[in-house]
Design a protein that fits this description.
The protein is built from 17 helices and 13 strands. By secondary structure, it is an alpha/beta fold. Strand 4, helix 4 and strand 5 form a beta-alpha-beta unit. Helix 4 packs parallel to helix 5. The radius of gyration is 20 Å and the shape is globular. The structure holds uridine-diphosphate-N-acetylglucosamine. Uridine-diphosphate-N-acetylglucosamine binds next to helix 1, helix 5 and helix 11. The site of uridine-diphosphate-N-acetylglucosamine has 19 residues, from helix 1, helix 5 and helix 11.
Length: 372
């Protein structure tokens, strides 16, 4: 009888949790064939940024928690690598599976290949073509050392082929984050978020903001706050605030801007189910997140992306996303268009059907079996 395959799954930051959840669930269906080990690097550590997601998504307690916390990019990456190497030596997995584009993704992928352990990258091939973004560097590097590259959209396959990656290593399997959305939409609908915040369906907009390019530079942050000032005169805006944005607001002494906006509601960062409900029932979303561009596309909620580019072009071509950049006038203009009823709803992209994890695990079992 074949021995069980050991797959070591890595999570670190908030956007990783909803991507790993369906993969772990799928692995459980193959318990006789695969053993799963879960490692949490601890890049995100707050209750709102981590624990709530484990509860909402019924993620198992990590087998290893590395507790790295925050630091500069180099220090954080280095700490993860040092601690993750010990885990690899202790567990000797057949494969390390990483998701997304955060520092934990590249740190763990790099550690693994150095020990000749193959890496699977879920959400491979996305490119903003903006190398000032830390996530872009993480994406390019992780893809270049991964053996199994699972993509969410066709543009990603093209990017990888252009970078010289063999087509035999690229698999268009769909979007695991949408597996999670589809699997949790009904439970999220029962959440009391709107009642708690005294909001009415479609009567408010949602804002999320955390990119370094938006919140770490005072003039960019102020520009966005000025746009928000105009928008909140027409519609309430709910802003579940990210710790980075909170810290920078304080550091740049921008609290006065918030006080001047009675219709901007700054609330704590939310768990998965609460936020899904908030997003699904909103009139539109303003964001600089990657994942939210995809989630709003499936929810058919208009999305204005406060960035100069997107690594997820299918959300613009087929979905409900418009990339509005950081220009105050453009942001306000597009928001007012939506408020006046001119909305882009779009279509759900191919293979965003709730079955991506199923495809990924099936492929991994076939491929890894051939090797052992
Ligand atoms: C990280 C990811 C980003 C992802 C985002 C989602 C990288 C390079 N960036 O950015 O791609 O979209 O997560 O949230 O990996 N902090 C807390 N509590 C926490 C986590 C962070 O207070 O639980 C604070 C830290 O002290 C730090 C700031 O928030 O000052 C930023 O955290 P960091 O992990 O550096 O990156 P994010 O901006 O969250």
């Amino acid at each position: 009888m074949n021995k069980r395959l050991k797959i070591l799954n890595v999570v670190g930051a908030r956007p990783n949790f909803m991507k790993i959840a369906p993969i772990i669930k799928e692995i459980r269906r193959y318990q006789n064939k695969i053993e799963s080990v879960l490692v949490h690097t601890g890049q995100h550590f707050d209750r709102e940024m981590s624990k709530l997601f484990f509860e909402d998504l019924h993620l198992p307690k990590p087998d290893f928690y590395l507790g790295v916390g925050s630091a500069s990019h180099a220090a954080q990456t280095a700490k993860i690598m040092e601690r993750f190497e010990d885990v690899l030596v202790k567990t000797s997995p057949d494969l390390v599976l990483v998701v997304g584009d955060v520092n934990s993704t590249i740190a763990c992928a790099l550690c693994s290949v150095k020990l000749n352990i193959p890496v699977a990258h879920v959400e491979a091939g996305l490119r903003s073509f903006d190398r000032t973004m830390p996530e872009e560097i993480n994406r390019v590097l992780t893809d270049s050392i991964s053996e199994y590259l699972f993509t969410t959209e066709k543009a990603a396959n093209k990017n990888l082929l252009k970078e010289g990656i063999s087509k035999d290593n690229i698999y268009f399997t769909g979007n695991v984050m949408i597996d999670t959305l589809i699997g949790h939409k009904k439970i999220a609908d029962r959440s009391s978020t709107l009642k708690r915040l005294k909001l009415k369906k479609r009567d408010y907009a949602v804002l999320t903001l955390h990119r370094s390019s938006n919140v770490d530079k005072k003039h960019s942050f102020v520009n966005i706050l000025e746009a928000l000032y105009e928008i909140q005169r027409e519609i309430a805006i709910v802003w579940p605030i990210h710790p980075r944005a909170k810290k920078m607001l304080r550091q740049f002494e921008l609290d006065d801007y918030i006080l001047r906006m009675p219709n901007l509601r700054v609330v704590s960062a939310m768990g998965y189910l609460e936020f899904l409900k908030l997003m699904a029932d909103s009139r539109f979303v303003l964001t600089d997140s990657g994942g939210i561009q995809e989630e709003t596309t499936v929810l058919k909620v208009p999305c204005l992306t406060l960035r100069r580019n997107t690594e997820r072009p299918v959300t613009v071509k087929e979905g409900s996303n418009i990339v509005v950049g950081q220009d105050r006038q453009r942001i306000v203009k597009e928001a007012l268009k939506i408020i006046s009823g001119k909305v882009k709803r779009g279509e759900t992209p191919k293979l965003w059907d709730g079955k991506a994890a199923e495809r990924i695990i099936r492929i991994l079992i076939q491929r890894l079996r051939k090797k052992t």
